[in-house]
């Protein structure tokens, strides 16, 4: 194999796969990327057996062929090269040569035959979806999904496509059992092209985060679809496949409080700042802070026997009988960072009930955080 390719094109390809390649050495080949040169293009494919990402890039192919090479080392080398053309070649012993300017590298590779095959893409219909909408759906829910939750299914996002008032809608739900985020937005291309019927999928958190990175790259409209066992994300010549999680997602509707009559409106920046400052002296493991609601104010406080205590009062639009409750400050901050409004609405029932957090004027986005004893 021998080819010439621009450094910028090559760098884009290797940047895209860094979050997908397997970091652990359970299968050394998975820390590599499959590099195939044919016709006038290079195909880069990386997988961790749960997520696969394949991209096609323009190149001058002098001799077709393929090899697998360390995704991380290649990325580190390409990142440091000067702008211009890069020559990539491979030898019979699968050593990969990289030449750019006066720099030369040789990196040991592995036979392409050992690399897992790209899963077949089912002939499922794909639906165009607004890039900004899909990015928002992920950003406003992914923080609530678990990372290494003992309940495996909570490490994913529940995604549902359905019809609502004769329009296709998509709903994203994320929860780790301590907090919950739900958002609905219009789907399809606005011209009637959508997915048939109601479709539900549980998408791994890692896959959602990789899709979010790709969405932030450029303005091109992506397409999305769901098959029996995988999520399909496509944008131009770039394809991402994610194996769907199997299992029953919890009935999150039960968690959403229905009778939260105590309602406080507060400036988001004021609440965020107070939470950050007061949580400095909270217990590190729990980040527990106390919220005391009184007419026109919210007082936040924390206490740590080993460190000290903190207290701050902020203004709030609240005119009902007060209450005192406790929450994990980090969970609250994650929710507030996902909200775009200048003010947020906090709804409570009593000291031991969950808090419902909303953006004014956006009934299709809400978050819930469970209380804790402080």
Q: Which key phrases capture this entry?
A:
374 residues, DNA Polymerase III, Chain A, domain 2, 17% helix, 13-stranded antiparallel sheet, alpha+beta, 3 domains
Q: How would you portray this structure in words?
A:
With 374 residues, this protein is α+β, with helices and mostly antiparallel strands. The protein has three domains: 113 residues, DNA Polymerase III, Chain A, domain 2 (Roll), CATH 3.10.150.10; 117 residues, DNA Polymerase III, subunit A, domain 2 (DNA Polymerase III, Chain A, domain 2, Roll); 114 residues, DNA Polymerase III, subunit A, domain 2 (DNA Polymerase III, Chain A, domain 2), CATH 3.10.150. The chain contains six helices and 25 strands. The strands form three sheets. It has a 13-stranded antiparallel β-sheet, with helices on one face. A hairpin with a 6-residue loop joins strand 24 and strand 25. Helix 5 packs antiparallel against helix 6. The longest helix is centred in the last third of the chain and has 12 residues. It is elongated, with a radius of gyration of 25 Å. The mean pLDDT is 93.
In short:
This protein is α+β, with helices and mostly antiparallel strands. It has helices at residues 7-17, 71-80, 131-139, 205-215, 268-279, 329-338; strands spanning 2-6, 32-38, 41-47, 51-58, 60-63, 65-70, 85-90, 95-100, 103-110, 127-128, 156-164, 167-175, 179-186, 199-204, 223-226, 230-235, 238-243, 262-267, 288-294, 297-304, 308-315, 323-328, 343-348, 355-358, 365-369.
